[in-house]
């Protein structure tokens, strides 16, 4: 039986996951992964510098999708015994029965508590906002009353949601928005919330509101949690890039050809279909292409792209 060739562009989470799924579903494909850099993991890689490991992208592993969490668990099982830092704080409530020992094995997901803070009024506040005595004490009675009245007003008078600013004010009131969300968002993304689409908010914090925050603070915690209210997450022992490096190792053992420093220059088309990929000047004939490269680079690599499309891609 003749093998068909699939080229996957990019060895980040999307590219490697596509290669893994293709290998899982069929043994009729020869899979080649082309990565422009010298590292696995894309925007979720762990950079090594002077003996240190640095996260440059997403580093908290949490998902409501069972398929995704099972995929992670298969690659790197959750710790079953305490790590060194767990022992120091005497924490063992997060261990998985039968899981690996993180002090002896490297392929292991650690479970860690989420701690995020905003420095405001010379105090550190939990982010997302935690309604507690410490929070109210730090805000003071005047700000607390003002925040409450602002929230009640926003509950009664809803703004048209044309921006992320509108999204936050509708859910928390202008006072809390100005205190905790406005500057934080602009510093994090480099854009003022008034210039960011409200859809970003619905994707990022989904159904989060002050009522959800209050319920999270005072009511028993059960059922599905809002993404922004999670208190624990998984973390690979050596950083997020380790998971993708582990996946790459598994794929290579299954015959997947992963080529680093292989920058895609052009995509060749025959009869309206991509027939070959040119990387570092070398042509690779293929029957299918899966691209996870930036869209602007993909468009520039395609032949005969309409000018209007090329301008938008830039």
Which key terms come to mind for this protein?
314 residues; alpha/beta; three-stranded antiparallel sheet
Q: Mind summarizing the main beta sheet?
A: 4 strands, parallel
Q: Residue-averaged pLDDT, rounded?
A: 87
Give the termini distance in whole angstroms: 42 Å
Strand order of the largest sheet: 9-2-1-13
What structural class do the secondary elements suggest? alpha/beta
Task: Give the percentage of residues in beta strands.
Answer: 15-25%
Radius of gyration: 24 Å
Secondary-structure element series = EHEEEHHEEEHHHHEHEEEEEHH
Quick gist of this model?
With 314 residues, the protein is of the alpha/beta class. It is 39% helix and 20% strand. The chain has helices at 13-25, 66-75, 84-89, 133-156, 164-189, 198-204, 210-218, 240-253, 295-301, 307-313, and strands spanning 4-9, 29-34, 46-49, 52-55, 109-113, 117-120, 123-126, 232-236, 257-259, 264-270, 273-279, 282-285, 288-291.
Protein described:
This protein is α/β, with parallel strands linked by helices. The protein contains ten helices and 13 strands.
Please outline the helices and strands.
Elements: E1 4-9, H1 13-25, E2 29-34, E3 46-49, E4 52-55, H2 66-75, H3 84-89, E5 109-113, E6 117-120, E7 123-126, H4 133-156, H5 164-189, H6 198-204, H7 210-218, E8 232-236, H8 240-253, E9 257-259, E10 264-270, E11 273-279, E12 282-285, E13 288-291, H9 295-301, H10 307-313
Parallel strand pairs: 1-2, 1-13, 2-9
Antiparallel strand pairs: 3-4, 5-8, 6-7, 10-11, 11-12
Helix pairs in contact: 1-8, 4-5, 5-6
């Amino acid at each position: 039986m003749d093998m068909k060739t699939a080229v996957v562009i990019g060895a980040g989470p999307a590219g490697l996951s596509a290669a893994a799924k293709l290998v899982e579903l069929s043994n009729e494909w020869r899979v080649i992964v082309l990565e422009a850099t010298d590292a696995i993991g894309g925007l979720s890689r762990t950079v090594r510098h002077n003996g240190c490991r640095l996260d440059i992208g997403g580093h908290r592993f949490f998902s409501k999708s069972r398929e995704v969490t099972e995929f992670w668990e298969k690659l790197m099982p959750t710790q079953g015994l305490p790590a060194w830092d767990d022992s120091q704080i005497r924490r063992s409530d997060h261990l998985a029965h039968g899981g690996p020992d993180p002090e002896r094995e490297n392929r292991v997901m650690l479970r860690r508590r989420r701690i995020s803070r905003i420095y405001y009024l010379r105090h550190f506040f939990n982010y997302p906002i935690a309604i507690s005595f410490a929070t109210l004490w730090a805000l003071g009675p005047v700000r607390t009353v003002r925040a409450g009245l602002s929230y009640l007003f926003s509950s009664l008078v809803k703004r048209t949601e044309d921006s992320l600013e509108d999204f936050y004010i509708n859910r928390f009131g202008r006072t809390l928005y100005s205190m905790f969300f406005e500057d934080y968002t602009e510093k994090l993304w480099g854009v003022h919330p008034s210039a960011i689409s409200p859809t970003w908010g619905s994707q990022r914090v989904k159904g989060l509101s002050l009522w959800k925050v209050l319920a999270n603070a005072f009511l028993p915690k059960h059922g599905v949690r809002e993404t922004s209210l999670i208190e624990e997450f998984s973390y690979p022992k050596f950083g997020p890039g380790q998971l993708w490096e582990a996946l790459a190792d598994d794929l290579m053992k299954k015959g997947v050809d992963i080529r680093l420093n292989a920058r895609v220059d052009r995509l060749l088309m025959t009869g309206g279909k991509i027939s070959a990929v040119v990387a570092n000047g070398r042509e690779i004939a293929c029957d299918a292409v899966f691209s996870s490269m930036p869209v602007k680079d993909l468009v520039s690599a395609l032949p005969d792209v309409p000018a209007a499309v090329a301008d938008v891609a830039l």
